[in-house]
Structure formats: C-alpha cells, structure tokens
Design brief:
Layout: E1 3-4, E2 8-11, E3 28-29, E4 32-33, H1 38-48, H2 93-112, E5 118-126, E6 131-139, E7 145-148, E8 150-154
Pfam family, one: GP46
Organism: Paraburkholderia tuberum
Protein name: Phage protein GP46
Length: about 160
C-alpha cells in the first residue's frame, strides 16, 4: 500500500484505489489543463498540509515553531489542519478526539467554499495495532456522497 509522508496510507474501502495510480491534476486536454481529481486534491491539501498552530497548543514541542502557511494571513479560508501537532503524542482517547476535530475543521472549509453541501468525518483508532483511520465524506446538494476515502496512519510511539 502506498504511503503519503509521515506514515499515512491511502486506501479506498470499496475499490482499494492506489492514490498514486489516480491521474494527477496537471494532465492536459486540448492544449489546456484538465483537472480530473480536484476534490481529492483539495481534501488531501486540507487534511495533510500543516496549519499554523495556536501559540497555546498543548501538542507543539516548540512554541516558536508553529508552522503554517504565510498565505493564510490573506485568505478567508485557511489551508491545512492541525493533525501534524498530534504525531508525537501517544494514541490516547484525547488525541483521537483532537484528530476528529482537526479533520472536521479542515474539511468544513471545503463546504464553506461551496465544494460540497455538507461533510462528515469518522476517526477510528486501533490502539493495539497503533493505527488511526480517518474517513472524510463530502455530500452533494442532492445528498449523494461525492467524496469518500480512508486514510490510515501507523502511530509510532517512542
């Protein structure tokens, strides 16, 4: 199974789609760009880009390194999530709940921008196997699921 940085694996619960076999967004058609997977790209960017952590975050090791993207200062829709702040934490119930909240906040921005009518996000942890699975879903205006993928992270605890 392919991985996407920092220990995350992508898998589709139905088709077991390999994200690295999905056509990239920069394909061309008739001499112009042909975006095929815009929603998938937007979800990945929102979940896995490092959002700027609040100065009082209990999960950052160095308050001087809050990360984030400078462009967020000029945008009404910040990019990324705070999942990165959890990677060095033990896989506790609190960390699982924070992961759920951080992922929902990140995906909600796609709803706020009009890319979907509503969203749901499940986060399930398997503590004995040290894994966390995030399943974001986006729904169209007619109520149908327009996006559903699972992302699994192997939690390495030191």
């Amino acid at each position: 199974m392919p991985s996407y940085g920092d220990g995350w694996d992508f898998f589709d619960p139905i088709a077991d789609v390999d994200v690295f076999q999905v056509p990239p967004d920069w394909q061309t058609a008739d001499g112009d760009l042909a975006a095929q997977n815009q929603l998938h790209s937007a979800v990945i960017i929102q979940i896995f880009t490092e959002a700027r952590a609040p100065a009082d975050s209990p999960f950052i090791d160095n308050p001087e390194d809050r990360r984030g993207w400078w462009g967020d200062a000029y945008s009404p829709f910040p990019v990324g999530s705070l999942l990165w702040t959890l990677y060095r934490q033990p896989l506790t119930d609190s960390v699982i709940e924070h992961a759920r909240s951080y992922t929902r906040d990140a995906i909600q921005r796609l709803v706020d921008q009009g890319a979907a009518a509503r969203q749901e996000c499940a986060v399930v942890a398997d503590k004995p196997r040290a894994t966390m699975t995030i399943t974001p879903q986006l729904f169209g205006r007619d109520g149908s699921i327009i996006y559903s993928r699972q992302f699994r992270r192997y939690w390495v605890q030191t």
